[in-house]
Amino acid sequence: MAISQEISYRLERLILDGGLAPGQKIPSERQLAARLRVSRAIIREALHELQGRGVIETRHGKGSFVASLIPETGEFEEQSPLMQLYEGHPRTLYDLLEVREQLEGQAAFLAAQRATSMDKHRITKAFQALEETDPLSNAKPDHGFHQAIVEASHNPVLVHLLSGLKSMMLLTVQASVSNLNPREEMRKTIVRQHRQLYDAIINCKPAAAQRVASAHVRFVRDALKDMEQQGNRVIRSQVMSNSRNPQQSGIDFGRHNP
Q1: DSSP sequence for 160-177
Q2: In the chain, what are the helix, strand and coil shares in percent, each to the nearest 5?
Q3: For the segment 31-77, what is each residue's pLDDT rounded down to a tens digit?
Q4: Which long-range contacts link 196-199 to residues 24+ away (Cβ below 8 Å)?
Q5: Measuring CA to CA, which residue among 97, 222, 108 is closest to residue 169?
Q6: pLDDT higher at 246 or 115
């Protein structure tokens, strides 16, 4: 792998780790070259690659800045910056599941408090569709069930946030279905958790709904991590590629997260 690609990958890691935030100016080519002990030509090539993928943007006369990872439209395209990072950095799957655990737990709490009869009807229909679909290919009805709960929270900010991440969240559900549902014990646990979540919301039990929703996503995250730690390959999506996932190159940004 070219040195410039290694450097672009490590810059992406820095963005994911929070060392470079959206809108923040990236150090100059001279500073990066000195820090990473490579030529400015290599730095320039790495930045050009990141710009081409929409991860950074160059402002004439001002320098390069980290682009917003979440599109203003709220819709993710296949080649959006966050999708690029998802495809190239395996840890992003777990970052997304952390977000799901917190936000969907709160959504379930509010849904159990606020769901109208129409909301409960939609949640019931979504739950029935999930139960009636082959568990080895039920990512969309699984996501639809969780989405119906989010909409029943009647918190427009929460609904907007998760709707904006809809495509990315669906990828986490696909990862769960692809990797865990083929394993009988895992599948039984997930089916039981979905039933418990449904019952808690329909029976207006906010604390129980929040506890089950959070535990469900945490279970998925921990199970996937355990699979990887045991040396098993985790399928993240059909477009997932490790082509930009180099081995440690020895380039030190002063911060390393797994």
Answers
A1: HHHHHTHHHHHHHHHHHH
A2: 60, 5, 35
A3: 988 888 889 999 889 888 888 878 888 888 888 888 876 655 444 45
A4: 197/108, 197/149, 198/123, 198/124, 198/127, 198/145
A5: 97
A6: 115
